[in-house]
Amino acid sequence: MKSIIALALLLFAAASAVAAPTSPPPLVIHMAADGDDSRDGQGPERAVATLDRVHQILEEGPPGSDVVVRIAPGTYRGQRVIWTATDPDYAITFTRGGPDAENPVFDGCLDADEAPENCPGGTWFRLRHAGGEPSNLRFRHLTIRNYGTAISLDGDRNDENGFNSHNEIADCLFERIGNISNPRHRGSTATVRMVNSRHNRVVRSDFIDIINRGDRAALMHALYLAHRASDNVIADNRFIDQTGDAVRVRDRSHRNRVHGNRFDRAGIRGAMSEWYAYPGVGAARDMTSARECPSYHNEFFDNVIGTNYAGDPLQPIYVFHEHRDLPDGCEPPAADTPRMIARDNRTTAERRDP
Can you tell me the distance from the alpha carbon of 131 to that of 198, in angstroms, rounded to the nearest whole number? Predict the structure, then answer.
C-alpha cells in the first residue's frame, strides 16, 4: 500500500510540474546609432536607430512577454519619444548593449559642438499612461544629457485612479538638464517628473548640472513628484550642482522615501521640499478656489548633505505653507500626521566629485 501511495504522489508531482506555467522568453530589440528604422531590431545586424521605431514595433504587435531594448554604445542625438506601449504583466527594459558595454548616450543637442541654437531642449522620454495599472518601464545604464527634461512619467493629474506605476530608473547618469544648454529656452521644472505615478524607484543614479539659467533657476528639480505621486523610493543617488531643491514633492504626494543619497551644491531651501499651489500665494495668486492639497508622511533619512547651490549650508527639508489653514476641499490627515520627516541625516561641506 505504501508503495502505491508513494507512486501516486510521484505521478501527481510530475503532472504538477508539467502543468506549471513558465514565463515566455523576453523579446529583445536591438538599437544602434548607425541602425536603420526600416529594420525590425531582431538582432544586432538588424538594429533600429530610434526609440520611435521601437515603440512602433511594440504597438504593432504586443509580444506577451518582457521586452529588453539593448542599445549599443554610441551617441543618439536629438531623439524624443512619447511612449504609450505598456503591459501590466510584463516589463520593458531600456539598457546598454551588454553587461560590460559602455552606456549609450542620448544627447538633446544635434551636433557635438553643442551650440545653443543646435540644442532644442524638450523631453527625451515622455510616458503617457493613466490606466490605473503598472506600466513597468525600466531605464538602466543610460546617459541622458542636454535636454530640458529627461523623463516624464505622466498619469492623469486630475483623476485619482488615472495613475501609472512600478517603473524604475537605475544606474543612470543625467547631466546638463534644464536650459543650461540653451538659455534662450524658458527652462524646465524637472529632470525626472512623476505626475500621478506611484511605486517607482530611482536608485544609484547621478544627477549633475541640473540647471536653469535666468528667473526660473529655483524651479528646476532633479526629481519632481507631483499630483498624487505617492509611495516612491529615491535611494543611493548623487545630486551635484542643482539650481533648485533637488527633490520636490507636490499636491497629495504621500509616503515617498528619500534615503541614502548625497547632495552637494544642490538646492536653495532644502535638499527636499514640499509645496502645493495655495490660493493667493506666489504662483497660485490668481487661483479662486483650492485645487491642490498638502502631501503627508514623506521621509528623508540617512542622507549626506553638503551645501546649497550658492555654497551656503543646506537644510535637509523645507515645507511651504506650513502654518496655513488647510484649503477647502482637502481632506485632513490622520491626527499628528507630519508633512515631512527628517532623521539620521549627516551634514558635511565636503565635496565629492562625480
Answer: 12
The pLDDT value given to residue 350: 45
pTM: 0.91
User: How many Cβ atoms are within 10 Å of 87's Cβ, its own excluded?
Assistant: 18
Quick: pLDDT tens for 191-236: 999 999 999 999 999 999 999 999 999 999 999 999 999 999 999 9
Rounded Cα gap, residues 196 and 173, in angstroms: 24
Residue 62 pLDDT more than 80?
yes
Average pLDDT of 103-124? Answer: 95
53 in helix, strand or coil?
A: helix
H or E stretch covering 17: helix 2-19
pLDDT at 10: 55
In angstroms, rounded to a whole number, what is the distance separating the alpha carbons of residues 117 and 104?
A: 24
CA distance 340 to 160: 22
Per DSSP, which regions of 155-205 are E strands?
164-165, 168-170, 173-178, 190-195, 197-198, 201-203
Give the domains, in start order, of the chain with CATH numbers: 103-347 (2.160.20)
Q: For the residues of 301-354, what is the DSSP string, one character each?
A: ES-EE-B-TTSSB-EEEEETTTTSPPPTTPPPPSTT--SEEEES-EE-------
